[in-house]
Amino acid sequence: MLGIREDVRNARLRDPAARGALEVGLTYSTLHAVWAHRWHHWLWRHGLRLAARAGSQWMRFLTGVEIHPGATIGRRLLIDHGMGVVIGETAVVGDDCLVYHQVTLGGTGPGVGRRHPMLGDRVVVGAGAKVLGPITLGDDVKVGANAVVVRDARDGVTLVGVPASVARSGSIEYQI
Fold it and tell me: What's the pTM?
């Protein structure tokens, strides 16, 4: 119950359109997807993989957010306008992250082991961005809209472009 209250409070703090706790709890389908993922992840870790996958696919149908039950999600993840978000099986998302619509945290091949990205704490991933492969984004990284990230990034940088690179002008790093 604490996680649900914490998520609702977080959504109210970070989303200017959130009017009240009841409205957020009842109408934010992205929170419903994250809450369901917690249950599906528990099933996955306890060997009930078919039930976990079936449940995650049902939530995908209901919410437009696909979170593989094997993914590890930290506290207070907020998915804003989540339609089209995909979070792969071996992805790790830190605490207090913000992910916008059409974001993919995906793999780049059929390999074994870690195939998806690892996001640090307080990472913001802009609309339409793709973060691909077994890469690591440090704490407080910002990924610009529609960027394609295929390399690791240190703490606190802002990534933009295709392929993404640190946003710079001369020797000054810009923060979005």
Answer: 0.90
